[in-house]
Every structure is written in C-alpha cells, then in structure tokens.
C-alpha cells in the first residue's frame, strides 16, 4: 500500500486551483447557443437590408419581431392549441407503446405477431389516414391528437421494447434466486432499465409531436399554428409565417429542455446523466 508524500499533498491545492478555470469555462458554455443565435440574426438583418431583399421573400428579423409583438394573443392561443394536440397525442402514443412493448418483451411469438402491424402504422402516410379519422372522430381535437400519436408511436415502441429487454443479467439472476415473481421483476428491474431508452424516445418524439400537430392542422384547417401558417402563406405575409416558425421552434426547444431536465432528475443513478 502506498501513501501520499508531503510533496504530493502540498501540490494538491495547486492542482485544484488550476482546475477551477476549466470548471468556470464549463459553467459558461450555456452562453454559446444564444450568442450564435444572436450572430445569425444580426447577419440575417444586415444581409436583407444590404441586398434590399423584398419583404415578401425574406423579411428581416426586426419585421418578424414586430409581427410577434403586434399580435401576441393570436400566437399564444394558436400555440396553446397546437401544444395541447402535441402533448395529448404524445401521451397516448407513449402509454400505448409502453403497454404493447411490455407484452412483446415477455413473448417472442406475440412480438412476431404485433410488430408487423406496428410497422404498418409507421409507413402509412398520414394524409391517407386523416380523412378516416375525421369521419370517425369529427373535426375536433381527437383527430389531431391521433395523428400525433401515429407519428410518435413507433419510436417509443422500439425504444421501450429494447429497454425492457436490456436488463442486467446478474440482477435478473439475483431476483430469480430470491424467487421474485414476474411482476416484481418487471417493476423492480425491467422498468428502471427501460427508463433511459424511454427518455431517448421522448427526445425524438417531442419535435415529431409538434410536427404532427401542425400537419393535422394543415389537413383540417382547424385552429392552431398550422392555421396561422396557412393564412400567412395565403396572404404572402412572410413576417407572420416566420413568426409562427419561431414560436414552434421555441416550443420544441423548451419541451426538449424539459425532457432533458426530467431525465437528469429521474436518472441521476444512471451513467447517461452523469457529467464528464
């Protein structure tokens, strides 16, 4: 057994002090994305004005900001409608996919029977399905949520299935040695093992959910950000159109950041949430 020499001990504070600036630089990395975004906006504004680009082709960011500030209520209401459809459909897809994955994870024959219909839903064009959804459920919120669910269902199913089967073999053998029931193995081992995969699926599905909600609003003409974009496109009001795109982008970034935050809190025991 070796012990630290006095020289090593005295050198330790110096090493800690040298490492502090590196930690400080890491704490300031969050400033990089806003700074890059500000540079892009500045370059955009400068280029549009210098080249005298027509506003209906490419408005400057200042015009987009003016459009957002002139009618904040319109964008807020439309964003709330689209967000409701996106989150509702995402919840339906996540719960359904996880339940189906739990069944498939315990039976290979059921997986072989259920996987092809799930894949069929993935490859079926939404524009072909949406008229049926409106016939069955009307023109309200349900068809939009079901479109979102159809778009986000398959990534969640695949990740949940892989996660439920990616269990530590030693832990599984230990539970079997304790004569744990199948439900105890499921809730105490398989579900915790699947959580990293489920959060990865959510990071993929959140942007898809917003896209699905807007696509459904395109097809139905219902209220939401899709309707705002359609009206602005018909009026050649590109400032409002870009404003709607920025609002959707902000929603996507916010939801993704929320998922990442929840992942760090829930999976603080997992390697994926630990800092390097």
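Q: What amino acid sequence fits the structure above?
A:
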């Amino acid at each position: 057994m070796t012990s630290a020499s006095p020289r090593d001990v005295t050198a330790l504070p110096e090493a800690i002090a040298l490492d502090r600036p590196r930690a400080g630089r890491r704490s300031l990395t969050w400033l990089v994305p806003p700074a890059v975004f500000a540079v892009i906006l500045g370059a955009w504004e400068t280029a549009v004005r210098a080249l005298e680009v027509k506003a209906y082709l490419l408005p400057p960011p200042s015009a987009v900001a003016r459009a957002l500030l002139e009618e904040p209520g319109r964008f807020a209401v439309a964003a709330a409608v689209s967000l409701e459809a996106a989150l509702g459909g995402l919840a339906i897809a996540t719960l359904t996919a996880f339940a189906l994955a739990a069944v498939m994870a315990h039976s290979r024959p059921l997986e072989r029977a259920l996987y092809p219909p799930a894949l069929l839903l993935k490859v079926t064009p939404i524009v072909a399905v949406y008229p049926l959804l409106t016939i069955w459920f009307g023109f309200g919120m349900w068809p939009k949520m079901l479109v979102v669910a159809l778009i986000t269902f398959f990534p969640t199913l695949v990740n949940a299935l892989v996660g439920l089967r990616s269990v530590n073999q030693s832990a599984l053998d230990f539970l079997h040695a304790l004569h744990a029931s199948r439900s105890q193995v499921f809730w105490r081992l398989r579900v915790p093992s699947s959580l990293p995969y489920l959060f990865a699926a959510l990071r993929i599905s959140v942007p898809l959910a917003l896209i699905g909600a807007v696509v459904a609003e395109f097809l139905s003409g219902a209220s939401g950000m899709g309707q705002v974009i359609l009206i602005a496109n018909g009026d050649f009001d590109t400032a409002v159109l870009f404003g709607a795109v920025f609002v959707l982008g902000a929603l996507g970034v916010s939801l993704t950041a929320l998922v990442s935050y929840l992942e760090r809190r829930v999976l603080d025991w997992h390697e994926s949430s630990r800092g390097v």
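Q: And what stands out in the fold?
A: DSSP finds eleven helices and no strands in the chain.
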